[in-house]
């Protein structure tokens, strides 16, 4: 794997580490709902889904 692909995947992991840390998660800890779901769940699953899609795109470019 090329060094730049590894760096991009590590940056995704570091970004998720900071996004899922207490200061950001505590912002969404409340009574705010999106489509009937708590904003906390929407934030966690949406950020997780986006990171999976971006990682897939990076790895797809690597294997071409």
Describe the structure.
It is a single chain. The chain is built from three helices and two strands, in the order ααββα. Helix 1 runs antiparallel to helix 3. The mean pLDDT is 88. Strands 1-2 form a two-stranded antiparallel sheet. Helices cover 73% and strands 6% of the residues. Strand 1 and strand 2 (37-38) form a beta hairpin. By secondary structure, the protein is mainly α. The chain has helices at residues 3-19, 22-27, 39-62, and strands at residues 33-34, 37-38. The longest helix has 24 residues, at 39-62.
**What is the overall number of helices?**
3
N/C terminus separation: 12 Å
Main structural class? mainly alpha
> Could you give the order of the helices and strands?
HHEEH
Summed over residues and divided by their number, the pLDDT gives a mean of 88
Proportion of helical residues:
over 70%
**Main pleated-sheet profile:** 2 strands, antiparallel
Low-confidence sequence ranges: none
**Form type:** elongated
The portion of residues forming beta strands comes to 5-15%
Strand order of the largest sheet: 1-2
